Every structure is written in structure tokens, then in C-alpha cells.
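REVIEWER CHECKLIST
Item 1: Sequence provided? yes
Item 2: Single chain? yes
Item 3: Sequence as submitted:
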Amino acid sequence: MPLVEIDVSSGKVAATAGRRWRDLFDFTWLPDGSGLLLAAMDKSGFPLQLWIVTYPGGAVRRISNDLSSYISVDISADGKSIVATQQNQTASLWVGPASDPDSARQITSGRLDGVNGVAITPDNHIVYAADHAENWDLFIVNADGSNGRQLSFDRRDHSSPAICDKGRSIVYDNDLSGTHHLWKQDLKSGASTQLTEGLGEALAQCGEDGSWIFYLGQKDFQDSRFRRQAGGTFDGRIYQSAVCFTRWEARSACGDN
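Item 4: Structure as written out by the authors:
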């Protein structure tokens, strides 16, 4: 996303000089008006860092460099002190029997394992998204924590894996083109194929019989629910009554919930 400026008298909107950002949480003017102080992400998978962007030139200087994220920022009137909110997250995968969740044990030790999605194959392998090297990639591991390996290597943002084809493949979000679309990967061969190319698609789930893929997309500038034949090209918009979405799950025939 770019930084934009709005002329308050005319309402004209124009992008400022300089780079685009993957995400922007907060910003404030420097006291002398020579630039902006930002809490922003420059690339998918990187933490939100603090930056100074000169105005109107757009030159960028990074002023923090660590594994934490900074989600808000301000600067004192004399320009000598910066205050920022630092956010530190950790996440790992734990596995245990549904009948005795207190006996669950940790099977991964990454910093953000599973934060952007996790799914279990019919033969008890766990596919998850994690940020191990300043990039959101896909990984697979046995339920006992053994034989973990990386599945994606294109240095793009991957999230929301879903198990499809009775465990033979996964469908996931990928921003390879700059916009999130759905991709499908064969777990045996590793071959990946792009499934959608609309305005942006995400949060796929496969139907129980494997013949349909349900997902969120956009149509007529509105978020909509879609379904797609897993082995074909037909795409159809469906209504709220036909599919029910939660953060990681899509269920067909769930009424008006």
C-alpha cells in the first residue's frame, strides 16, 4: 500500500513519493514537517518496524531492526524521543487426544508456528504456516513432531492451508502476483498450480467429498462466498445460506448462521 496525501481544500488524493508498504499500522509527522515516522511492514513475513520517510522526497530510513513488531508510534514535540508499542508473539504446535487435552505435548518450537493456519491430513500429518526466516512458508510434520519439512520455497506469503483430495493435496493462499490467490500443491510431487485469478481470494476449504473448494473472494466490490469444482474451471457465487465461514473453516449447508 502507498502513503497518500489529501488536499483538504480540493479533496484531491495523490500518492506520496517513495516506496509502497506491505502493511502500515501507524504514523505521525516529524515535528519540523520534514518527514513521517512509521510503524510499517516492508515485506510479507517481516515484523512491523519503525521507519522515517522524508517529505516530500520519499527517502526511507529504517530506525529499528529486531524480531519484535511495533504497532503504534509517536514522537515528542522536540523530536528527541520516540515512544512505540512493541509486540512480541510466540506460537508453537501442540498435539493431544481430544478426550484428554491436558496431556497435549508441544511438537514444534518455531516462533510463530500455525499463526496463519493449520490443518491435519487424514493420515495425521500436520500442515501449517510459519515464519521461520522472515517469510510465511508452509511446513508439514508428523503428529508426534518427527519428519518436519518445508513445503514452499518461492519467498512469497503463504497462509490458510486446507487439506484436499483426501489428503493428497493442499489448497492455500499465496500472494505471488502481489494479490492473494488460491494455489494447490500436490503433497507427493510438490507441484503447485494456481487455481484462481480474481480480485483476491482466501480462506479455502474443501468439501467432504473433495469435489468442491469453498473460499472467500470479491465480486462487485463486495466480499462474497464462492465455490469451485476441484478438478475443473467452473466458478460460481453462492449465498450466505449455502456456506458458513469461520476463521479457518468453511461448512456447506449451515443455514443462515
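Item 5: Key structural point noted by reviewer: The first strand starts at residue 4 and ends at 6.
Item 6: Recommendation: ____
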